[in-house]
Amino acid sequence: MGRIQTIGDGIYLIGGPDVSRSDDATSFIIDFDGELVMIDAGAGGSSRILQSNMENGGLDPKAITTLILTHNHIDHIGSAGYFRTNFGCKILIHELDAAAVEEGDSLRTAASCYGTTFPPTKVDRKLKGDHEILTFGGEELHCLHTPGHTPGSMSIYIDRGGKRILFGQDIHGPFLDVFGSDVHRWKQSMAKLLALDADILCEGHFGIFQPKEQVKKYITRYLRNHN
After folding, report:
1. Does the global pTM surpass 0.85?
2. pLDDT in tens, 71-89
3. DSSP string for residues in the chain
4. Do strands 27-32 and 11-15 pair parallel, antiparallel, or not at all (unpaired)?
5. Any idea where the domains of the chain sit in the sequence?
6. What is the pLDDT of residues 152-195, one digit of tens each?
7. For the CA atoms of 175, 214, 169, 79, what is the dihedral angle to 10 degrees?
8. Digit-coded pLDDT (tens) for 5-16
9. Domain 5-225's class?
């Protein structure tokens, strides 16, 4: 177990391969003046580790009001039920990925790839369309529909402290029919992300990229792989 990492003002990496467990995608907390928003929730085996990491870093899990799931794969959603049950947070995901979560679909959640299952879990709000803006403490948190890896994949960004911080989970794919992947739509999604001109990229498996030249380099490298 590692220590949480400060990404920016009130933005923390609390889980991931080097912070919680090797099967976890990265998980983040954004602090809005004491109200916490969580982005993704690991693969499920690290629920108490994520909680402990928060507490050890001075963050109160009971202050989490919202858990945003960037897409429906087990390494991102595994502990969603734990945090909802124990701390009362609301679960948000794009409507196109919601059914797999609510049904506990082992194929679409990729749980079968991990040799596990995912229990059917209620979604409290299904985001719709290409761009929804959530407001916390007077600040805007942008949720962009960036399909490709899955039909309902989302990327999230916030402008804070003079920097644009992008949570662009699983930019690299993979792209499989069982996931409902679409490489053409993914390329369009990557164009959206490049247009954001983000200063910091928080990626799902490969860490934090900055400054903006490194963000652009990371995204374009994968685009070149699929030309």
Report:
1. yes
2. 999 999 999 999 999 999 9
3. ----EEEETTEEEEESTTTS-TTPPPEEEEEETTEEEEE---SSTTHHHHHHHHHHTT--GGGEEEEE-SSS-HHHHTTHHHHHHHH-PEEEEEHHHHHHHHHT-TTTT-GGGGT--------SEEE-SSEEEEEETTEEEEEEE--SSSTT-EEEEEEETTEEEEE-TTTT----GGGT--HHHHHHHHHHHHHHT-SEEEETTTEEE-SHHHHHHHHHHHHHHT-
4. antiparallel
5. 5-225
6. 999 999 999 999 999 998 999 999 999 999 999 999 999 999 99
7. 130
8. 999 999 999 999
9. alpha beta
Is the peptide bond prior to 211 cis by the omega test (within 30 degrees of 0)?
A: yes
**211's tokens:** 């400054």
* AA letter at 6: T
